[in-house]
Amino acid sequence: MLDIRQLGKEYRGATGVVRALRDVTLSVRRGEFVSIVGPSGCGKSTLFSIVAGLATPSEGDALFDGRSIVGRPGTVAYMPQKDLLMPWLRTIDNAALPLELAGMSRAEARTQAGSLFRRFGLAGFERHWPSELSGGMRQRASLLRTFLRRSDAVLLDEPFGALDALTRSSMHEWLQDVWSDDHPAVLFVTHDVDEALFLSDRVLTMSPRPGRILADTPVPFGRPRTIDLYGDPAFARLKQTLLGELRASSTGGPT
Ligand SMILES: Nc1ncnc2c1ncn2[C@@H]1O[C@H](COP(=O)(O)OP(=O)(O)OP(=O)(O)O)[C@@H](O)[C@H]1O
Ligand SMILES: [Mg+2]
Questions:
Q1: Quick check: CB of 44 below 6 Å from ligand 1?
Q2: Which atom of ligand 1 is nearest to 191's Cα?
Q3: pTM higher than 0.85
Q4: Residue 254: pLDDT band with limits 50, 70, 90
Q5: What does the H/E/C string look like for the chain?
Q6: 185-197 confidence digits (pLDDT tens)
Q7: Which of 22, 79, 145, 162 is the most exposed place for a label (fewest CB within 10 A)?
Q8: Pocket test for ligand 1, best of 15, 18, 48 (most atoms within 8 A of CB)
Q9: Ligand 1, from 9, 10, 11: best to mutate by most atoms within 8 Å of Cβ?
């Protein structure tokens, strides 16, 4: 359903040209959970901004069900790397904002957003300001806002990057559970190989900048997965393979 073909991206600035992506080709099938791991600065967020329709590639195309989505924001749901909750809006209004921007009445948007608060572990916090939420709650509020769009394809850029290990781990089981409701296709960026393996059907590894896909590794474990998976020797072997690929790709230092 999501087809990314030979994407390249160059940024031109006062100090010269930065080649962020080179010949990135990948596809995600309906309902599939695919993670991308790669070193910092290899172009993962750049890739997402192109697929989200917010940035244009220098080469190549991104297709959704066969139609180009380049320059067409709104087709896929996108949660950017930074938590973008508006500090002046209550949590419920932050969650409802994209529906309102899409033309829905405020009352209806609030009702739809409110119906998900329990599922996202935020019941009772509808009228709190973002500054009154914990880090994990803020990320769940951002995820709620992203999933509320009920898109068939969702891009999540390091949603748990800033969380402590314990919170992260409980978020993994929770996300797996929420994902299984509507089962959208997910493209998920992370630095964390454990997280990628726990959540994904496939893991793509990316080279240092200019980023390209080095390997496409299927993750064969059944679902639902629990933290017991971390004790599985097959999990440890797969983790070692991925870490080896990442390390081999980055020898020679950052470009
Ligand atoms: N708007 C921009 N203008 C100019 N250069 C940019 C812009 N956005 C990103 N870059 C450059 O493109 C390269 C890739 O950046 P990007 O944010 O896509 O990396 P990333 O893989 O998401 O990194 P991280 O893992 O640290 O989030 C970097 O060298 C960055 O400096
Ligand atoms: Mg990034």
A1: yes
A2: 25
A3: yes
A4: very low
A5: CEEEEEEEEEEEECCEEEEEEEEEEEEECCCCEEEEECCCCCCHHHHHHHHCCCCCCCEEEEEECCEECCCCCCCCEEECCCCCCCCCCCHHHHHHHHHHHCCCCHHHHHHHHHCCCCCCCCCCCCCCCHHHCCHHHHHHHHHHHHHCCCCCEEEEECCCCCCCHHHHHHHHHHHHHHHHHHCCEEEEEECCHHHHHHHCCEEEEECCCCECEEEEEECCCCCCCCHHHHHCHHHHHHHHHHHHHHHHHHCCCCC
A6: 999 999 999 999 9
A7: 162
A8: 18
A9: 11
Q: Which residue has the higher pLDDT, 3 or 249?
A: 3
Task: For a ligand 1 pocket test, name from 9, 22, 46 the mutation site with the most ligand atoms within 8 angstroms of its C-beta.
Answer: 46
pLDDT in tens, 145-160: 999 988 999 999 999 9
Pocket of ligand 1 contains residue 46 by CB under 6 Å = yes
Q: Is the CB of 210 under 6 A from ligand 1?
A: no
